[in-house]
Amino acid sequence: MSSARVPELYELKRSLRDKVLFPFLDGKPHEVNEISEAIGVSRQTVTKCLSFFMKDHLITSVGKGASGSTGGKKPLLYALSSSLYLICVTLWEETFRIHLYNINGDLVDRIILDAPLPDTPVSAAENIGRLSAMLMEKNKIDPADVRGVCVSVPVWVDRKTNTLILSTAAMNWGRNISLADLLRPFFADGTMILIESPGKIHSGLFYLDPRFEGRRLLVLSVFHGVSGCLIENGHILNGRHSLIGNLGHMILDPADPEECSCGARGCLNVLVPPARLQDIIRREAEKAPDSALLPCDQPPSYRQVFEAARSGDPLGRICVDYLARQFSQALRNLVFCFDPDYVLFAGNTFPVDDHFKKLICDHLGIYSQGRSDDRLFEILYDDSDLAERDALAAMMMLRWRMLNSSNVYLNLDTDRFQSAEAAEQV
User: Fold this and answer.
1) Where does residue 224 fall: left (phi above 0), alpha (psi -120 to 50 degrees), or beta otherwise?
2) Which end of the chain, N or C, is less packed with Cβ atoms under 10 Å?
3) Which pairs count as long-range contacts for 23-30, CB under 8 Å and 24+ apart, including other chains?
């Protein structure tokens, strides 16, 4: 192919990536006229692009749509292929799940296990590879058709190098671990492998929510520690060292005797876990000997504590007030450096209610005053299953990355493209 043709080919890539393919990210079928009107590209160009991608099995025809109001032929419908796949791994403390999706967003199969984090990253990679192979064999999927793998693991990830800098949940893993490299032998050459922290993954669904367009959103997840995600104008903030969002290691009480896994004292992560609530319940037990939270031989779940508080249980209310005080301190610090419009508690493991929201505002005190709506921010709650939301968001992130990385989803046969162009001009 002549050098003069290369810029034109790359321009076609951008057109396909940014225009023609964009409507398919909703996982629904679309017709040529609909795409043409939505993105402002001619029907001829849309048809040409779709035909090209059909040859690479990225787009497929899925039947015909309804006739227009004036009748006529029924238009063909197109959708992302169901023969290319993505694997999404949730590797958390006591939670190990592998979801297999096709790139159209359909869940094909999954494995759900209750298992601790493996002792070493090598063991983690081997477990992921072995179970992924089982899913592919069970569903008769060629490994070459798996185009992306995403692993959600509670670590500090260098997003520029896809490296695990440190995991306070698995300190024995060491530092600067390339989990992606450990996984590569288990997948086909060219498979995209992404490593990301859970907070960044499942929060990704929120920045697509039109409610938050042009706003600042802080997402908090309380599950085996506290993770956060700061979103501004539809973009997740990461920072130079990918540290933004590690809110569980914000120090609130340096005098606290318990040492955090990060080596500091008084981190949010050591002030609000169920084990700390267990200590409070035992200490205050005499105030409510008939409490539903007693005898508290095991740390209570957050759900048990919130439900007890809603029923008027004194110990439940003491615990919820304690949690509200800790989170209000953390939010007070965040207000001065981020000033969010919304604070969203994500996940059904930490079921906040109106009473908890009011307590936070009360504890913020003067800092919640002085605005026209008499509040610093609006507190929201999303009761999704975090692990399922994590898998869905990972699939969407992989799909987005795949459709924006031509070297991953498209091995352009430039000679074939040039031949097709020449044939059309004859």
Assistant:
1) left
2) C
3) 24/59, 24/78, 24/79, 24/80, 25/396, 25/399, 25/400, 25/403, 27/79, 27/80, 27/104, 27/105, 27/106, 28/79, 29/62, 29/63, 29/65, 29/77, 29/78, 29/79, 30/77, 30/78, 30/79
pLDDT digits (tens, 9 = 90+) for 40-96: 888 888 888 888 788 777 888 888 887 765 556 788 999 888 889 999 999 998 899
Residue 370 zone, left/alpha/beta (φ > 0; ψ -120 to 50; rest): left
**Omega before residue 274 within 30° of 0, cis:** no
Let me know: does 318 contact 280? Beta carbons within 8 Å. yes
Is residue 359 a contact partner of residue 319, using CB atoms and an 8 Å limit?
A: no
Confidence of residue 235 (pLDDT cuts 50, 70, 90): confident
Taking the alpha carbons at both ends of the chain, their separation in whole angstroms is 18
Q: pTM here?
A: 0.82
d(CA 368, CA 364): 6
Amino acid sitting at position 388: E
- Please write the tens of the pLDDT for every residue from 89-121: 999 988 999 999 998 889 999 999 998 889 999
Of the candidates 152, 169, 183, which has an alpha carbon nearest to the alpha carbon of residue 89?
152
HEC states along 203-230? HHHHHHCHHHCCCEEEEEEECCCEEEEE
CB 108 within 8 A of CB 125: no
Which region holds residue 27: left if phi is over 0, alpha if psi is between -120 and 50, else beta?
Answer: left
152 φ/ψ sector (left φ>0, alpha ψ -120 to 50, else beta): beta
Give the pair of three-digit tokens for residue 102. Answer: 């096709």
Q: Tokens 């043409």 label which residue?
A: 36
Angstrom distance (rounded) from CA 240 to CA 330? 22
pLDDT score at 23: 83
Cβ within 8 Å of residue 64, ≥6 positions away = 74, 75, 76, 77
* Residue 189 exposure: Cα atoms within 13 Å on the Cβ side: 1
